[in-house]
Specification:
Shape: globular
Number of helices: 2
Structural class: mainly beta
Oligomer: single chain
Strand order of the largest sheet: 4-5-6-8-7
Number of domains: 2
Number of strands: 8
Strand content: 35-45%
Length: 138
């Protein structure tokens, strides 16, 4: 793999490849997702890419009925809310992402602690194509 800079652009390129990549400090082994070019624990700049398996558990969530324009374009609204959550991955890092395949009209049936796995959502066509990180229950 050609070395990529630790940036949002590189992170998004990995997502398009359906790879969840973080950065790890070579000095203190702190792990970051999304990746960072400098360790916030020891301030070392020696970072390396690490592939994250994409399995973990739901730590917190909310169902959102008032959607921003991009989510409205995907069909989300007051009658069809979407779920956003914090996932604690098996590697120990947490990330905020969309939670798919849950009943957002009955959030009382969504449980903190459920096991989840990464899912890569491809949206748009051509130059507008983007990949969104999501998680779904196992």
């Amino acid at each position: 793999m050609k070395e990529r800079p630790f940036s949002d652009v590189s992170y998004e390129a990995f997502l398009r490849e359906e790879r969840l990549m973080g950065s790890r400090c070579k000095e203190c082994n702190a792990l970051f997702l999304p990746p960072r070019p400098i360790c916030t624990e020891c301030h070392h700049s020696g970072m390396e890419w690490i592939e994250i398996e994409g399995k973990g558990k739901l730590s917190a969530f909310t169902c959102i009925a008032i959607a921003p324009p991009a989510m409205i374009a995907e069909g989300y609204n007051r009658k069809h809310p979407y779920c956003s959550g914090v996932v604690e991955l098996d590697e120990g890092v947490r990330i905020v992402a969309r939670i798919e395949d849950v009943d957002t009209n009955k959030p009382e049936n969504i449980n903190v602690g459920i096991p989840v796995r990464a899912k890569f959502l491809h949206r748009g066509e051509g130059e507008d194509r983007r990949t969104v990180l999501a998680f779904r229950p196992l």
